[in-house]
């Protein structure tokens, strides 16, 4: 490409690109990382396919996007089910002809260490957090390779690279696996035009706090939020939008030479000494 043309190219545009967000709803009212990412992609011009096991939650995300005059569609799919994933992506490819970006935002957890985590717990959480990423990649990689272009973004967690103050064994180990799987995909497909990167959020203020983790910090939600904020060098939790913006960067041509990376969005948490 001509250097001048490349310099003036609108790098952060996702105009008319087909972006699939697996886990684009929210476990409770409010802004999850997946929902914020869907809206961010749409605002950059993408056509967003919102996947979630809770169809109504996916539809709520689509309604937000539609109110802004953007394009999106909602689809119910259990990302841990191979049959569901195959059927969903077959339908999406038939509908759009291509998928430019896969954003894997699926994740569940259970607090506790090895004595509080059953084999069934670990299998269930691994199926949702790790197996689902492989299943989704299996569906998008052939067409991305054929077109020699594509971006895969997985949402990991700082829990996968450090202890976060309470036992979270199954979630932490599976999120570590997400990072490594993404790196392996990046290496294998780098010369085929496909990029794969992980975004690693730190302590983010999302509806998930009240549902899953508040009890590990304090008796009330507000106390839990204050305790989480205190851990971070910036003395606040991040917002879903700050994570979504990192994802949009990796999805865009501004990140065209980035693959196999872990983009940490944590307010300095992972570099903290004590």
Descriptive notes:
By secondary structure, this protein is of the alpha/beta class. The protein has a single domain, classed as Rossmann fold (3-Layer(aba) Sandwich). 45% of the residues lie in helices and 14% in strands. The chain has nine helices and seven strands. Strands 3-2-1-4-5-6-7 form a seven-stranded parallel β-sheet, with helices on both faces. α3 links the parallel β2 (47-52) and β3. α2 (33-43) packs parallel to α3, α2 crosses α9 (240-251) and α4 (82-96) packs parallel to α5. The protein is globular. 45% of the residues are buried. The mean pLDDT is 92.
Spell out the blueprint of helices and strands:
Blueprint: H1 3-8, E1 18-22, H2 33-43, E2 47-52, H3 55-67, E3 72-76, H4 82-96, E4 101-104, H5 119-147, E5 150-155, H6 169-189, E6 194-201, H7 208-213, H8 221-231, H9 240-251, E7 262-265
Parallel strand pairs: 1-2, 1-4, 2-3, 4-5, 5-6, 6-7
Helix pairs in contact: 2-3, 2-9, 4-5, 5-6
CATH A-level architecture: 3-Layer(aba) Sandwich
What is the CATH topology? Rossmann fold
Largest sheet: 7 strands, parallel
Count up the helices: 9
CATH-level-4 superfamily name: NAD(P)-binding Rossmann-like Domain
Number of domains: 1
Strand adjacency order, main sheet: 3-2-1-4-5-6-7
By secondary-structure content and strand pairing, the structural class works out as alpha/beta
Overall mean confidence score, pLDDT:
92
Give me the strand/helix succession.
Answer: HEHEHEHEHEHEHHHE
Quick one: CATH class? Alpha Beta
Number of strands: 7
